[in-house]
Amino acid sequence: MVTYMMNYINVLITKKRILETNVLAEINWLLLMHLNVLCHFLNLI
Question: Which domain of life is it from (predicted)?
Fold first, then answer.
């Protein structure tokens, strides 16, 4: 029973880490997109 609980907790932690890294990747991608748009806009001026 204890090992089952430990495995369950490990799975939850792993899922949480995966979600966090996905969120960070999304934020980084959005920042890059905004930077590209800004650079393009500045080039047009």
Answer: Bacteria
